[in-house]
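Team,

Forwarding the record for the chain on the shared tracking sheet. I've put the sequence and predicted structure together so nobody has to dig through attachments.
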Amino acid sequence: MNNIPNIKLGLISVSRDCFPAALSETRRAAVKGAYGDIYECKVTVENEIDMLKAVEDVKAAGVNALVVFLGNFGPETAEVLLAKYFGGPTMYVAAAEDGADTLMDGRGDAYCGMLNCSYNLGLRNIKAHIPAYPVGTPADIAQMIADFVPIARTMIGVANLKIITFGPRPQDFLACNAPIQQLFNLGVEIQENSELDLLVAFNKHKDDPRIPGVIADMERELGEGNKMSGILPKLAQYELTLLDWAENNKGSREYVVFASKCWPAFQTEFGFVPCYVNSRLAARGIPVACETDIYGALSEYIGTCVTGAGVTLLDINNSVPADMYERDIKGKFDYTLKDTFMGFHCGNTPICCLKKGEVKYQRIMHSLLEPGKEPDITRGTLEGDIAPGEITFFRLQGTAEGGLKSYIAQGEVLPVPTCSFGGIGIFAIPEMGRFYRHVLIADRYPHHGAVAFGHVGKALFDVFTYLGVPKISYNQPKSLPYPTENPF
């Protein structure tokens, strides 16, 4: 994927001047040995002058994500100014003591130093990532560094992102409409365009010589799922239109995602449904959110940065019929009926995330736009059951009051046929019924949720925390009631 950052890590050790610097340096070398692929800055920071030298050194080495290592107690001021002057994602970790025989002359007190580090970060309003338990052996810290990589990748990606939109959000989808001030606060740029702008650009690509090559790639990807080959030329034309628009409109930004109005005028004026193209771009790390869902596009991009893989955006759509639950789920999987639901969209999920993807037509749009006719302008969906496996359902959302909130829920897609249409799967999330009522409904979330294919809730929680999201909800166990839950 070339739409997410590549991370080059740097490691800087700090040392309080009343402790031997050699203690921090020896421990730093052990961390480098345990992790491997990280630039080891040889400037040990004991004061502000050292801090400036260390920042200059890691920047010259191309470092874009920094690990500050308290090899001993550490200098409170200089160590937190590293994050300020470095300016990129920064994590603070501390050394555990080496052994009982070192506690007289080789004790580092970094356990204590991390407390003062945290206090000083807050005092200066400097954001940084501190792991759940930030004190450890070199092996422990190597794992913390590995966990930090997707967080750093996301922070850099969001800070250098432009969301390009086409068209206003649909009238009956006000749930996807939220104030955009918080996007600017996060460092995201927005470029809002008319659907007419997109139509003009699309028409200019009519005879683009690259179209046959894109069609051939689509045919290769679809294989037997190429059920409506006649629509591929228009889909290829549209794919090139979006890719060229992204390249020509990045401006000062490095990364681009889209949020597009995809119905109903889209079908009559463009002559197809854009879902399959949206799925292909999502697989490349360029999500295209349906229904001009700006926060949905941002959520998808965050999931892409965290996982380094394709994601999707689905409606939290319909309940699982009781007879289907009794026949295919009960007794085979440890979920109640209320733990399950169907996640659906017309066809924007990458084909690699489907059991078997096929280009088809949008049934609902067809009944409205082409009743009683062979599908024509409603062709272009990518349909199939979503492949079973672990998932994380999540969303970052702007509130009507101009704030930010988020939710994260881990679960799985069950290996159960959906007996339905679209890109769809049967999802199971522990305590989903309570989560649905006391988070999704109570906190007024829209029907769209981003889906990452894997359990990445830990990384997403740390990302939302680093971004300063004040409320991060999750599917709480029965033993932990929600504030709005009736105790009787």
